[in-house]
Amino acid sequence: MVRPSRSAFYGVFTATALVVALGLCVAWLVRASDGGRWEPAIQVPAILAAMSGVIAERRAAAREREKQTLRALAEELVKNTAILADPRFAALDPARPVHRVFPRPVLSATDATLVSGVLAGRDHQELVALLHKWRDAVREFNRRLDLAELRSFVVEADGPELLRIDRDLHRDGGHLDETCRLRDRIEELLRTRYRDKPEVVEALSGGPGA
User: How do residues 82-97 score in pLDDT, each as one tens digit?
Assistant: First the structure.
């Protein structure tokens, strides 16, 4: 059974309160001889309508922030998918090891989401927990890439050393493996838990704005 949203409730409540206030105003005009005793009765539903409208507006703004945040996360995930699939992360040819500068996964949307608290509600606890792990993993992965490039270029590594660096990068359970695994978990969560969110589905499919 589909439950009516709180926003719908506030909208109905606001409209009802305004209709009541309007009805009391008309009754006041018709029975003007009763003096000012109608004024408080008119003010109460009018005030309630104003308060309900403010709450509804704030909830609408919160929903819009949540929508934009989820879209940004999905778009960043697509971008990081392309980065991690970059040919420079492929295993080296043992016969022709080369020096490489690696692309870096980005975290701007992830950092902004975790700092802002937009997804602090219970509905997003699993996603937020994954984002914390993802942020830590990407930061450590990027640091490891810095070290790999230092070993490769500053020390002027030879072929065997380049292959050792490559083996470290691609070992099972290593930082590249962990980063890709977390990326996959986040995508799976977005595609299942948030499949009813058009902004997420559109961004993950590479639609407008992605």
Answer: 999 999 999 999 888 8
Q: What is the pLDDT of residues 65-82, one digit of tens each?
A: 999 999 999 999 999 999
CB atoms within 10 A of CB 83: 16
- The pLDDT, as a whole number, for residue 122 is 86
Report the alpha-carbon distance of residue 201 to residue 179 in Å, rounded. 22
Cα within 13 Å of Cα(68), Cβ side: 9
Residues with Cβ within 8 Å of 15's Cβ and at least 6 positions away in sequence, in order, are none
Of 43, 56, 153, the residue nearest 99 (C-alpha)? 153
The answer to whether 128 touches 189, Cβ cutoff 8 Å, is no
H/E/C letters for each residue in the chain? CCCCCHHHHHHHHHHHHHHHHHHHHHHHHHCHHHHHHHHHHHHHHHHHHHHHHHHHHHHHHHHHHHHHHHHHHHHHHHHHHHHHCCHHHCCCCCCCCCCCCCCCCCCHHHHHHHHHCCCCCHHHHHHHHHHHHHHHHHHHHHHHHHHHHHHHHHCCCCHHHHHHHHHHHHCCCCHHHHHHHHHHHHHHHHHHHCCCCHHHHHHHCCCCCC
CA diameter of the chain: 103
Integer CA distances (angstroms), 82 to 19, 103, 191, 193, in order: 55, 10, 18, 23
Decide if 149 contacts 141 (C-beta within 8 A). no
Residue type at position 100 = R
